[in-house]
Write a structure and sequence with these properties.
Family: Belongs to the pyrroline-5-carboxylate reductase family.
Radius of gyration: 21 Å
Number of helices: 12
InterPro entries: 6-PGluconate_DH-like_C_sf, NAD(P)-bd_dom_sf, P5C_Rdtase_cat_N, P5CR-like_CS, P5CR_dimer, Pyrroline-COOH_reductase
Number of domains: 2
Distance between the termini: 36 Å
Protein name: Pyrroline-5-carboxylate reductase
Subcellular location: Cytoplasm
Structural class: alpha/beta
Catalytic activity: L-proline + NADP(+) = (S)-1-pyrroline-5-carboxylate + NADPH + 2 H(+); L-proline + NAD(+) = (S)-1-pyrroline-5-carboxylate + NADH + 2 H(+)
CATH superfamily of the largest domain: NAD(P)-binding Rossmann-like Domain
Order of helices and strands: EHEHEHEHEHEEHEHHHHHH
Largest sheet: 8 strands, mixed
Strand content: 5-15%
Length: about 260
């Protein structure tokens, strides 16, 4: 199976490096091209990928064709390669935020092309990501399973209605930055009380990672897990109440609201 990438930005690189880490696809079977030769040729050489001379060359050879350009470039790029897509029949895998399946079909000029829309997060680079999936009506179940199997090597996958993709962007796509912010804030509190920043970051990050793993493995809701940690009259409930009084829940929800609103623009 040959995997093509048109566009080699940060998210494309995260997916490529996750695929390589899983060791199920030879590096030479990953084909790339972008508008910046110095970027993609050097990157291809670094990882042993196949650098293609143009987008049509990628589309001609790929079984799975990842669109990883800026959303505003979708029409221009697809207009250039639509004849190749129609004749070569790759499965088009769009990771373009805010560009619907219907718009992708319109850019290509037909509904008779297999399209999978995905939304990964950056943690796919370390095979700990989560990727949302939705296909158009032409996507075969066999090709959906093929793509889902590839993406499952990068972490978890979840099938969502297209209307829920903006919510996914906030909860998974943008949220790593929110979590980094939380870890950094916890670490700064540790520094306030005498820890080095490195030690405080390590403690906070490990606590977040372990707590997340516990949520995924437990049958209990996060709220119930919180109750398990809180002793009556203890330190944890005092901290939680102080965070709530400072507007923690409201700040998180407003951050999600703002992210969703921006994505829907």
């Amino acid at each position: 199976m040959k995997i093509g990438f048109i566009g080699v930005g940060s998210m494309a690189k995260a997916i490529i490096e996750g695929i390589l880490a899983a060791e199920n696809v030879p590096a030479s079977d990953i084909l790339i091209h972008s508008a910046h030769p110095a970027n993609y040729e050097q990157y291809a050489q670094k990882w042993g990928l196949t650098a293609c001379a143009n987008n049509n060359e990628v589309a001609q050879q790929a079984d799975l064709l990842f669109l990883a350009v800026k959303p505003l470039m979708a029409g221009e790029v697809l207009s250039d390669i639509k004849k190749t897509i129609i004749t070569a029949h790759p499965v088009v895998v769009s990771m373009l935020s805010g560009v619907s399946l219907a718009e992708l079909e319109q850019f290509i000029g037909t509904k008779n092309v297999e399209i999978l829309r995905i939304m990964p997060n950056v943690n796919v680079a370390i095979n700990q990501g989560i990727t949302a999936l939705v296909g158009n009506s032409s996507l075969s179940s066999a090709h959906l399973q093929q793509a889902q199997s590839l993406l499952s090597d990068l972490g978890q996958t979840i099938s969502l209605d297209e209307q829920d993709f903006s919510t996914f962007v906030a909860l998974a796509g943008s949220s790593p930055a929110f979590v980094y912010y939380y870890i950094d804030s916890m670490a700064n509190a540790g520094v306030k009380y005498g820890l080095t920043k490195n030690a405080a970051v390590k403690i906070a990050a490990q606590a977040v990672m372990g707590s997340a793993a516990n949520v995924l493995q437990s049958e209990k809701a996060p709220r119930n897990l919180m109750d398990d940690v809180c002793s009556p009259g203890g330190t944890t409930i005092a901290g939680l109440l102080a965070m709530e009084e400072a507007g923690f829940t409201r700040a998180v929800i407003e951050g999600i609201d703002a992210t969703i609103a921006k994505d829907k623009e």
